[in-house]
Amino acid sequence: MKWQDVEAKQKKVAKILTNGLKSDRLVHAYLFIGDRGTGKKDVAQLFACSYFCQNKQGIDPCGQCSECKRILSGNHPDLMVVKPDGRSIKKEQVATLIKEFTYRGVESNKKFFIIEQADELTASAANSLLKFIEEPQSQTIAILCAENRHKLLDTIISRCQLIQFAPLSPEAIESQLIEEGFAKALARTVTALTGDINEARALCGDEWFANARSSVIHFMEDLYNQSNHAIITLYEQVSLVLNDSAKAQTGLDLMVIWMRDVLNIHMDRGDAVIFSDQIETLKKQALILSVDHVAGALSIILDAKRRLDSNSQPISVIEQLALRLQEGAGSYV
């Protein structure tokens, strides 16, 4: 990763940090705030590489020297990463960090530490950390990553430079997934479900999700084009992949996206279609279904999502959904 990659996704973040690197005016503690998947950990690692790299190209780390390689592999002696132990970061972990940082750097006077999920510090751990960053050592940089700034001590926040990470746009996530080799249609579907690049990447690589997407496509196509076959598709495909409540919720989300795509076809918004590999099928359904019918179908699917929360048998919810969707336009009122 280079700083231009950060600029493409987090322009303000890149500007603040690169300006500091170029002018050699770095503060001792930064607080990275942003939703999960917005790149906080990746930027922290890049920042560490730029800080230690001996063969920088401008401010970009080379990625090949021993400093960079050890940072990227998690084995640099003067870089320490603290993560939650279980559900929280405990006082003992901060104490170990402080002890390690009382020693001189192994290879230079530079020291760097990253605290992931800093908003999960226990009260005692947070107070210990506060005392440590109140008296910073020269050439020591701390980066705290958090999603919820309101869970952090105000005194910790006041001693850090706040760096706000914006949510990634669906376009940015889709582009990143395509660059990584995932199919465009799959990438676009995933970005409609989550704004977290890590979760999106995991879904794209999950065979279950690919099967779920395929099953929902066949089911929605059969519902209106081969209604007699829809129930077979329901039992032979859908019921096998949407076999628990969490998976069924994802399946229903995909159905919502499908019906919104039909609505987008009605409104001549083909560029907004998520199931981009199913344009012809969607156009056929737009000819069959009126706008009111589509709106009614959306309402029924959303109602099924609500009922699924309190029903331990997801297949029964989807069975009822299929029957209601097939009742015809007269029921969508």
UniProtKB/TrEMBL annotation:
Keyword field contains Nucleotidyltransferase: yes
InterPro entries: DNA_pol_HolB (IPR004622), DNA_pol_III_delta_C (IPR015199), DNA_Rep/Repair_Clamp_Loader (IPR050238), P-loop_NTPase (IPR027417)
Catalytic activity: DNA(n) + a 2'-deoxyribonucleoside 5'-triphosphate = DNA(n+1) + diphosphate
GO molecular function, one term: DNA-directed DNA polymerase activity
Record's GO cellular component terms: DNA polymerase III complex
EC number: 2.7.7.7
GO BP terms, alphabetized: DNA-templated DNA replication
Record keyword Nucleotidyltransferase present: yes
Pfam families, A to Z: DNA_pol3_delta2, DNApol3-delta_C
Keywords (A to Z) from UniProt: DNA replication, DNA-directed DNA polymerase, Nucleotidyltransferase, Transferase
UniProt-listed SUPFAM superfamilies: P-loop containing nucleoside triphosphate hydrolases (SSF52540)
Enzyme type, top EC level: transferase
DNA polymerase III delta subunit C-terminal domain mapped to chain residues: 244-313
NCBIfam families, alphabetized: holB, PRK08058.1
Protein name, entry field: DNA polymerase III subunit delta'
Record organism: Pullulanibacillus camelliae
Underlying gene: holB
